[in-house]
Amino acid sequence: MKKRIFLSLFALAGFSAANAQSYLGYVHDNYAGVQSALYNPASIVDSRFKTDINLFSFSSALGNDLYGVKVFDAFKSGYDFDLEAKKNFSNANNAYFNTDIMGPSFMFNIAPKHSIAVFTRARAFLNVIDVNGKVINDITKDNSTSFPSASLGSPNAVGNSWGELGLSYAAVLFQKGQHFLKGGITAKYLQGVANYHFQGTNISVAYNDTGSDLTSTYQTTGTAIYGSSQDFASNSDIEIDSKSRGFGLDLGLVYEWRPEYTADRADINDLKEVNKYKLRFGVSVTDIGSVKYEKGIRNLYDLNRPSLSRPTPITVADFDNADNFDQFMKDNFDHAVVNGNVKSYLPTAIHADVDWNIHRKFYLNANADLGVVSKTKLNQNSIANRFSLTPRFESKWFSAFIPVSYMDYSKQALVGFGLRTGVFFVGSGSVLSNVVSKNSKAADLYLGIKIPVYQKKAKDQDGDGILDKDDECPTVAGPVENKGCPWGDQDNDGVLDKDDKCPTVAGPAANNGCPWVDKDKDGVLDKDDKCPDVAGPKENAGCPWGDIDKDGVLDKEDKCPDVAGPKENAGCPWPDTDGDGVLDKVDKCPKVKGTVANNGCPEVTKEVIKKLNDFSKSILFDTSKATIKAESNAKLEEIVKVMNEYSSANFKLEGHTDSTGIAAKNLQLSKDRAAAVKNYLIAKGISAERLSSEGYGITKPIASNKTAEGRAENRRVEIILVK
Fold first, then answer.
1. Domain match, 629 and 702 both
2. Which residues contact 586 (CB under 8 A, 6 or more apart)?
3. Where among 408, 433, 454 does a domain terminate?
4. List of E strands, 631-688
5. Half-sphere exposure of residue 76, counting CA atoms within 13 Å on the CB side?
6. Dihedral sign from CA coordinates of 591, 594, 599, 604
7. How far is residue 509's CA from residue 493's CA, in Å, rounded to a whole number?
8. Which of 258, 531, 573, 641 could form a disulfide with 565 if both were Cys (CB 3.0 to 4.6 A apart)?
9. Are 48 and 273 in contact (CB under 8 A)?
10. How far is it, in rounded angstroms, from Cα 405 to Cα 387?
């Protein structure tokens, strides 16, 4: 009891923020009808309906980021909200509640590419943001023994209700091949019903509990702008003023990609009763506008009490003695009228969705609803941003969908379920998560009843894909190229007349419907006769034997009938594979260019021998041994490469020493070293038949043995070309 004053003070707020979208999961259905215009006015054109009449539909949602409950337990008798709810307090808690009632409404096509919709609608939004949840929770506890001073922050609250009379128009803007674009606009006349708005600045409260309503007091600080659509202090009954009105606007575009459109199915866009897109992209802006309340009032309240002008604190009795909340505010706080009209702004939002026709009647929709207005603006309704993913099954008389979404404030995944059965639909964006979660912060429900009048199925009696209105043979299937009539086959040869070059004489398809002939009467049909105008034997495919290349070898025996060549080579010219001017038949190196003098093999020049000896001079041996040092391997590999280039050449390896030591031993050492090099080269793939070795000891010096440099030059292995 002691805290109900400030509980009532912020009951206006209800910790609320408007829901992002009504009829979640349903409005993207291709059979949503007039309800789809609320989300994107472009959706009503090229519709599955000839007419859709809404008798009554209802959508409501609530939620918050402060309290979490097991939703269905909350309706049970004895449920203690304070004890059983899970609390998530912050300095800026939020929640939402909104109601959307749609009265008699309808949509219909006024032309193949033009549609309109007229709807009636009653809406109520309540927004509050940035309220200290811990303080509000303490205020509501009647069993609390004390309430310390605490800040409520700077909340912004808007409560607004109004009626709508809307007129939507949509048209096909662009249609070419697989690309289809439509646009729509909705103009809305708005009739204001009631409005409250509250914007606080640095509000705090301290409670002194004496146990008595007469003496228990509240000390408050801060300022607040509080206004309403009428002076509820003098008349608490809501009076609808015909002058409290406004105008609203919705805009939308829808693009559809229709890959089934082909040259053979150019009529696909004319089919009204079937889905034609693989992907659909939609974007819209809704609720542009405001409502102006002619009798609205707005005051700036000084909430500082006690103060110089009001030295005593507020008591519970002060609130009990007030007829209503508005009267309580005027009687207990200093206030001044704020100039300006009381105008409530609609919750302008951008909506975007992508709808994917996965296969036949199965779809997946991705949707985003984003508020584009400031949530802190005075008397500004706003939506909570929402992102959702909705798989659905959709058919003419039945749809089922499971929206999975995430929304601001509640900060949790919501899973719902919905059904449409032609004349009735019901659903929720959160019912499945509400069933299993013990910490639900949101719940919603929508339902409706309508009279759908579907588009008639275009007639195609013969089922050839060409509508009867365009089919010149409506009862007999035929291709579009022949205007729906079947192609004939006068000679019954299986080749249709359109492809038959002899339509009155039977013939095989391979000859375009004409019979095969034998013009040269050689017994070989023209289809098999390579010389159809000249008689020839069957063995030569109907051509006479000849000698085309005039080489004296008849074509039947000539393996190269188009090129002259000797008989010894079956009429083919001798080749010269390596192009060195030496024919392969005498070329000892047919795959490597050489010279005529060397029988087609490359000649080993003096430069090549010098190159080999430059490498061989770098071959090192262990002292007084024929063992080749490892650092000589690189030079030996270079020798292998050169010898492989001249594969027909033979080489002699000659070993030499200096004059140091015994001549006989030097002679043997030179022979061993020459043989060691030869064996190395053989091991590397050089044919042994191409190599020989000999040693000459000290007998063939090339420099003076009197100097160290000369002796080093004399110790060598030379490579000699063997001709």
1. yes
2. 599, 600
3. 454
4. 650-656
5. 9
6. negative
7. 8
8. 573
9. yes
10. 5
User: 271 and 394, same structural domain?
Assistant: yes
- Residue ending a domain, among 439, 454, 469, is 454
Within 10 Å of residue 460's Cβ, how many Cβ atoms? 19
CB of 187 within 8 A of CB of 164? no
Question: Residue 656: exposed, middle, or buried by beta-carbon count in 10 A (0-12, 13-18, 19+)?
Answer: buried
* Closest-CA residue to 57 (of 16, 106, 96, 18): 106
pTM over 0.70: no
Fill in the amino acid letter for 610.
K
Nearest-angstrom CA–CA distance, 652 and 677: 11
Q: Which domain holds residue 242?
A: 4-454
For residue 314, how far is the Cα from the chain centroid? 60
Letter string b/e over residues 445-454, b meaning 16 or more CB atoms within 10 A of that residue's CB: bbbbebebeb
The overall average pLDDT reported for the chain is 84
Q: Per residue in 405-425, pLDDT tens? A: 998 777 788 999 999 998 999
Mind listing the pLDDT tens digit for each residue in 431-473?
999 999 888 888 899 999 999 999 887 677 776 767 777 777 8
| Same-domain pairing of 330 and 266 | yes
Q: Is the domain of 548 the same as that of 636?
A: no
Burial class (CB in 10 A: 0-12, 13-18, 19+), 199: buried
Tell me what percent of the chain is helix, strand and coil, each rounded to the nearest 5: 20, 35, 45
Q: Please measure the distance between the N-terminal and C-terminal CA atoms of the chain and give it in whole angstroms.
A: 127
pLDDT digits (tens, 9 = 90+) for 204-245: 888 777 777 677 788 889 999 999 999 888 888 899 999 999
**Which positions ≥6 away from 460 have C-beta within 8 Å?**
466, 467, 468, 471
Report the distance separating Cα 171 and Cα 174, nearest Å. Answer: 9
β-partners of residue 126 are: 97, 159
Question: What pLDDT, on the 0 to 100 scale, is given for residue 414?
Answer: 92
564 in the same domain as 429: no
Q: Which residue has 């002699």 as its token pair?
A: 652
Looking at residue 299, its pLDDT comes to 94
- Residues 101, 239: one domain? yes
648-681 per-position pLDDT tens digit: 788 889 889 988 889 889 889 889 988 988 899 8
Spatial neighbors of 605 by CB under 8 A, at least 6 apart, are none
Do residues 392 and 25 touch, judged by C-beta distance below 8 A? yes
Please tell me whether residues 277 and 355 are part of one structural domain.
yes
* pLDDT tens sequence across 339-385: 778 999 999 999 999 999 999 999 999 999 999 999 889 999 988 88
The token pair at 132 is 């200290």
* pLDDT (mean) for 141-169: 79
Q: Identify the three-state secondary structure at position 182.
A: strand
What confidence tier does 141 reach under pLDDT thresholds 50, 70, 90?
Answer: low
693 in Cβ contact with 677 (< 8 Å)? yes
What six digits make up the tokens of 120?
A: 């009636």
> What is the spatial distance between Cα 211 and Cα 204, in angstroms, rounded to a whole number?
22
Question: β-strands 691-695, 650-656: how paired?
Answer: parallel
Confirm whether 163 is domain-assigned.
Answer: yes
Query: Both 230 and 292 in a single domain?
Result: yes
Q: Give the total number of structural domains in the chain.
A: 3
CA distance 561 to 546: 9
**How far is Cα 32 from Cα 23, in angstroms, rounded to an integer?**
10
167 pLDDT tier (thresholds 50, 70, 90): very high
Residue with tokens 């019901």: 426
Q: Give the C-alpha separation, 412 to 439, whole Å.
A: 9
Which sign, positive or negative, has the C-alpha torsion 325, 329, 330, 332? positive
Structure tokens at 329: 């505010």
For residue 595, tell me if it sits in a domain.
no
Q: Which of 46, 197, 165, 37 is nearest to 111 (CA)?
A: 46
